[in-house]
Specification:
By secondary structure, the chain is α/β, with parallel strands linked by helices. The chain has helices spanning 11-22, 39-48, 53-56, 80-90, 106-109, 111-132, 166-185, 207-216, 236-247, 284-295, 319-325, 333-349; strands at 2-6, 26-31, 61-63, 70-74, 94-97, 136-142, 189-194, 197-198, 221-223, 230-231, 234-235, 271-276, 282-283, 301-303.
Length: 352
């Protein structure tokens, strides 16, 4: 296939693009490389994938030295004309849309950046798919859409009408927008709700990166809700495997779907939603203990109240994923943390 992967300088996008390139797909990657977090990490991911970081800073095409079928171009989702030209020229078989303005807490301080990237940018992607008709559009949603839900584990068959951050609201909006385009224009679309993704090359605003850095530098870590939180931590390799499996099977309409008892996870249109999580919530203090064990060093803890926009528990019901794709994320947290710490140590030692 020829696949467009958006967000290829990002955490998940980088690994998905490489997995596709390794199996022989032609991969076109784009990213605007914004400054939400350290751009050196983003350029580091591109370098990992065989791109010259200096060449990647421009707006022209850059060829990977590791993967002959992987090209990259710096391009913003808000550049409507640029996206339209890209779609018209390349004629993609599939689109894997992983780019977004991420982060729950940052959406409280800069809400407009989420509207621009996650709503405006996604509208541009949908319009391009409408006019160029790829066989499948897969896009990243988030476990954040479950908001105030307390029916555990979180199921895609539950309504998610009570988000508690603008980030979550934009991701819920993405699902609604995707269904609309699927219904109106017959675009096969699948949304994936990711649950707390972690691993090497992960985002520096996430707990694992923040905690590891603080512990090594003898700074206290901020433990919110006084440690009374659980997260369904999901290792990057499991996420990538699921994304590729889903990408390979375009969504189909469900002829048994009924508007009298509407199921939010599917439709009579070719539209599906899946959770991708470990299906095994880990207490925050147990997660900290796993990091301490890997670092062989105790953390100094600063216990704080719950942050606005946060939820106490995330827990993914993945039975639909298992049923339809025969795969269940399974990497143990200690194993995943050990891999991250090994990468982090090497990454910081080289002065990045």
């Amino acid at each position: 296939m020829k696949v467009l992967v958006t967000g290829t300088a990002g955490f998940i996008g980088s690994f998905v693009a490489v997995r596709l390139a390794e199996r022989g797909d032609e991969v076109v990657g784009i990213d605007n490389i914004n400054a939400y977090y350290d751009v050196n990490l983003k350029y580091g991911r591109l370098e990992k994938d065989g791109f010259d970081p200096e060449k990647a800073k421009g707006g022209g095409w850059v060829q990977s030295k590791k993967y002959p079928a992987f090209r990259f171009r710096r391009l913003d989702l808000e550049d409507r004309a640029g996206l339209e030209g890209l779609f018209a020229k390349e004629k993609f078989d599939s689109v894997c849309h992983l780019a977004a303005q991420a982060g729950v807490r940052y959406s409280l301080s800069d809400p407009r950046s989420y509207i621009a990237a996650n709503i405006g940018g996604f509208t541009n992607i949908l319009e391009c798919c409408r006019h160029q008709a790829p066989k499948h559009l897969v896009f990243a949603s988030s476990s954040s859409v479950y908001g105030l839900n307390e029916a555990y584990p979180f199921s895609t068959h539950h309504n998610v009408d009570h988000p508690i951050s603008l980030y979550a609201a934009t991701k819920k909006a993405n699902e609604l927008m995707a269904h609309t385009y699927s219904h109106l224009f017959g675009i096969p679309v699948t949304g994936l709700r990711f649950f707390t993704v972690y691993g090497p090359w992960g985002r520096p605003d996430m707990a694992l990166f923040l905690f590891t850095d603080a512990i090594l530098k003898d700074r206290p870590i901020d433990v919110f809700n006084h440690g009374n939180m659980s997260r369904d931590f999901t290792y990057i390799d499991d996420i990538v495997t699921c994304v590729v499996k889903v990408l390979d099977r375009p969504a189909a309409g469900d002829p048994s779907w009924s508007g009298k008892k509407p199921d939010p996870a599917r439709s009579e249109a070719p539209y599906r939603i899946y959770n991708i999580g470990n299906n095994s919530p880990v207490k925050l203090m147990d997660f900290v203990e796993a990091i301490e064990k890997s670092l062989k060093k105790k953390a100094k803890k600063n216990f704080l109240p719950m942050q606005p926009g946060d939820v106490a528990v995330t827990w993914a019901d993945v039975e639909d994923l298992v049923k339809d794709f025969g795969y269940r994320p399974r990497t143990p947290v200690q194993e995943g943390v050990d891999r991250f710490v090994k990468w982090y140590t090497a990454f910081t030692e080289r002065g990045a």
